[in-house]
Specification:
The chain is α/β, with parallel strands linked by helices. It has a single domain, classed as Spore Coat Polysaccharide Biosynthesis Protein SpsA, Chain A, CATH 3.90.550. It has nine helices and 13 strands. Strands 1, 4, 5, 6, 8, 9, 10, 11 and 12 form a nine-stranded mixed beta sheet that branches. A hairpin with a 4-residue loop joins strand 9 and strand 10. The termini are far apart.
Length: about 290
């Protein structure tokens, strides 16, 4: 079966984010800012750049109201106050958010086990049986060319794909944090995918990170009985189950991938964004130089 080109993206932010406590006991991790936008908005904009028309955000039950407020609340009092002060231009970024195309916000199914595959499984009913779709983890940001666009271009090249995973090389000692991908560079077909291997056991330093093009077949394996490492439900494990009988491709993405999943790397991603985009970037450089 050949699936339709993706028009929907599932964006996930349904974990505990324990490395960011105490702030994440109140605020979802993907609502932490990069510049004046939350991480989630950067991921959404990456999807829109690639031509995605509909976003499904999967959040925790506690986090869902934050996303509903951010994407739907017009803060009319603030708008009126800014207008009265002749500062309506400051409201324009809010209007941009409110005018985003269709965004659906759901809670993760509480009956599913912990793991990065459970938010995807929670959005199953929003995906048609004949369409491919994008999955993006909101703790990964991509600067430069959209990784989602890379995946869409790969799907044009490989319309027989049952899944395409975004990958980049990482230092050997870092592969233990990711799923290690083995593939044939001539055909771009995935041959093996191992979740968080010990460096001495990893067969590849090519890391699968939080950008995927998937098809509804993945839902056959994202089930509670298929938990793996640490009794979690892993997306990588589900994709690996497709390999023996389906074509799964690897796309080495070209944009700069940075994780925001822990405080140190979040700080690096924030700094990179600031130095590349903010008008006060030179002031930051001078401060770092002198302190």
């Amino acid at each position: 079966m050949q699936y339709k080109t993706p028009s929907k993206a599932i964006l996930t932010d349904a974990g505990f984010a324990s490395r960011f406590l105490p702030i994440t006991k109140t605020i979802p991790k993907a609502m932490l800012p990069i510049g004046n936008r939350p991480v989630m908005q950067l991921v959404i904009e990456e999807c829109y750049e690639a031509g995605i028309k509909e976003i499904i955000i999967v959040a925790t039950e506690e986090g869902k109201p934050f996303y509903e407020d951010y994407f739907r609340n017009p803060i009319e009092k603030v708008k009126a106050q800014l207008a009265s002060q002749g500062k309506s231009d400051r409201y324009l970024p809010v209007e941009k958010v409110l005018n985003f195309p269709k965004i659906t916000i759901i809670s993760q199914d509480p009956s599913l086990p912990y793991g990065n595959g459970s938010p995807i499984a929670s959005a199953k009913d929003y995906i048609s049986p004949d369409e491919a779709f994008i999955v993006a983890y909101s703790d990964d940001v991509v600067y430069g060319k959209s990784a989602v666009k890379d995946l869409m271009e790969s799907f044009e090249k490989h319309p027989d794909a049952h899944a395409i995973i975004g990958c980049q090389l990482v230092p050997h000692e870092e592969i233990k944090k990711y799923a290690s991908a083995e593939f044939n560079p001539e055909t771009e077909i995935l041959e093996g995918l191992t979740e968080k291997p010990a460096p001495e056991e990893a067969k590849s330093d090519l890391a699968s990170y939080g950008r995927y093009l998937l098809t509804p077949e993945i839902f056959d394996y994202l089930k509670p009985e298929n938990t793996g490492l640490d009794s979690e439900l892993w997306t990588a494990d589900a994709i690996a189950k497709l390999i023996p009988t389906k074509k799964v491709y690897v796309k080495q993405t070209s944009g700069l991938w940075m994780t925001t999943g822990d405080p140190k790397n979040y700080a690096f991603a924030q700094l990179k964004y600031t130095l590349d985009n903010e008008e006060y970037a030179d002031d930051i450089r001078e401060f770092i130089k002198n302190n």
